[in-house]
Specification:
Length: about 290
């Protein structure tokens, strides 16, 4: 009986420990009180207790990550990881950030044609008793490329107050089905459209391939998310290709072939060369098609 009980305790401890092996310490935790509990780090912690307290008159507490990991381990929470040297606990400000949240919602909706926003959290970087009545919200032009960031509000007296924000959302992107060489036309044959959680992009992802024909600007690996840096408008004519040139008048229509002297996109004006060496200016109207200018 004693052996069975010991085995049960051992198995329970292993299961308990494994439940938290995936947890990583955040660099900042926002809390509602001066007392800091394990549950602020581990949601619904089964062995919850107070581990720190913010000093009276202050609104933050900064501790070493290794010190916190040791404290958690002593309370049965093992294998938790830390990615930063310090962890900061910040007391939440009793302010209404709904205007800022709405601003962020509209901001992301302007930059993504189809975005599914589940939640937006905004926290002041310092403790605030209240927000000013009037202010202007300022944010980086490329902030929409990431799920989190920093914005500020500017008061009529030009004072700036900074906030951290994080958005939980999904956006549509295109990924490559296979490795693509440079100047490959993009289509449903070599790309796939999917919805992914917004994390961080180096450039804006392509959301719709049907608006205009596109081609790869450089070599793309399989399963790559296709962004604006990776594409350009599809070339209708390639250098040295044969081009069908039309010349229309009131009484007749003439078509002849000529060699393109450069790559060209729809609407471009380029020079072509006939077999006899004559060079002409033409306007691109389609795939390997042009009209005399």
């Amino acid at each position: 009986m004693f052996k069975k009980f010991t085995l049960f305790i051992l198995l329970s401890s292993l299961i308990f420990a494994s439940d938290f092996a995936h947890i990583k310490l955040q660099s900042t935790y926002y809390i509602d009180s001066d007392e800091i509990y394990i549950s602020h780090i581990i949601k619904d912690a089964p062995r919850n207790k107070q581990i720190y307290k913010i000093t009276e008159g202050r609104y933050t507490k900064r501790v070493k990550s290794q010190e916190l990991l040791k404290l958690l381990k002593e309370n049965g929470y093992r294998d938790i990881l830390a990615e930063t040297s310090y962890v900061k606990f910040v007391k939440k400000s009793p302010i209404n950030t709904s205007n800022i949240v709405n601003y962020l919602k509209l901001y992301y909706q302007r930059h993504y044609r189809k975005i599914e926003i589940k939640d937006i959290k905004v926290q002041s970087r310092g403790f605030l008793e209240s927000l000013p009545k009037n202010y202007i919200i300022e944010i980086r032009d490329d902030a929409y490329l990431a799920k989190d960031g920093i914005l500020s509000i500017k008061t009529p007296k030009n004072k700036k107050i900074y906030f951290n924000f994080i958005i939980d959302a999904k956006v549509f992107v295109y990924t490559t089905k296979e490795t693509l060489a440079r100047s490959t036309a993009l289509s449903a044959l070599n790309t796939i459209k999917k919805s992914i959680i917004l994390d961080k992009f180096m450039a804006k992802p392509i959301e719709d391939l049907e608006i205009m024909p596109l081609e790869s600007r450089h070599h793309l690996q399989k399963d790559s998310i296709i962004t604006s840096r990776d594409v350009e408008i599809l070339s209708m004519i390639k250098r040295n290709q044969s081009v069908n040139v039309s010349m229309d008048s009131k009484n007749m229509s003439i078509t002849f072939s000529a060699r393109a002297l450069k790559d060209a996109k729809m609407g471009d004006t380029i020079t072509v060369e006939k077999a006899n060496g004559t060079r002409l200016k033409v306007v691109v109207i389609g795939k390997n098609r042009a009209i005399l200018k």
